[in-house]
Amino acid sequence: MHPTLASLVRTAQIIVFALIAGTVLFAGVAYFVGPTTTPPPPPPPPLPAGAVAPVAGPFGGIDPLLLVLGAMIVGQLPVLAMMGMAINKQASQIAARMSGDPASRDLALSRLWFNSIILRAALAESAGLLAGVILLLKGEMIALAGVAFAAVVMLLLIPSRGKLENWLHRVTNAAAMMPAREPGRR
Questions:
Q1: How many domains does one find in the chain?
Q2: Which residue from 82, 86, 114 is spatially nearest to 16, judged by alpha carbons?
Q3: Cα–Cα dist 172/168, whole Å
Q4: Hey, which of 2, 16, 137, 159 has its CA 20 to 30 A from 53?
Q5: What is the domain range of residue 90?
């Protein structure tokens, strides 16, 4: 592997590990600094005669921040998948366009891969940090699921030399299978 490509992999590893460590450490601090128990809600005011008391709040008794976290996690799954597909398509186009110069092609593709790893890891980290904030403010232990989601996604994204080489091989093969385009058409 070219030294520049090896340094890209190493830099991406350092950044992804830093994102993981930051998320987990923030959640750990939030766990120890945040509220140990949630205070009981104040007693409801007395109801007038014949009135029916509401069963739960507007969200069925679920904290709205937890709903936001759940929506964020569920929403990230298709976004992460679509980002991967879009990056693969763009990489195949770059590989087809630069097929005459393999060294430059591999460097350009590696930079795209590097940026996609960092972008997807940062997206996953956002759910972990929101979960840490919920843990810090509300003491909701279920928020640790958001931290776990972020950590698992970022662990799956940890770059390696083998992953880069396999990805380069896949996109250059996909580029070789692409039909040739007429000159002047995009």
A1: 1
A2: 114
A3: 6
A4: 137
A5: 3-35+61-177
Query: Token pair of 86, please?
Result: 């879009």
* Residue 101 DSSP label: -
* Residue found by looking up tokens 């998320």 in the block: 23
Q: What is the pLDDT along the chain (186 residues), one digit of tens a residue?
A: 677 888 999 999 999 999 999 999 999 999 999 887 666 777 777 777 777 766 666 666 678 899 999 999 999 999 999 999 999 999 999 998 888 888 899 999 999 999 999 999 999 999 999 999 999 998 889 999 999 999 999 999 999 999 999 999 999 988 888 766 655 555
Residue 160 is assigned to a structural domain of this protein: yes
Q: Count Cα atoms within 13 angstroms, Cβ side, for 55.
A: 3
Residue 65 burial (C-beta neighbours within 10 Å; 0-12, 13-18, 19+): middle
Terminal-residue alpha carbon distance, the chain: 32
Neighbours of 102 (CB within 10 A): 12
**Contact status, residue 23 vs residue 125, Cβ threshold 8 Å:** yes
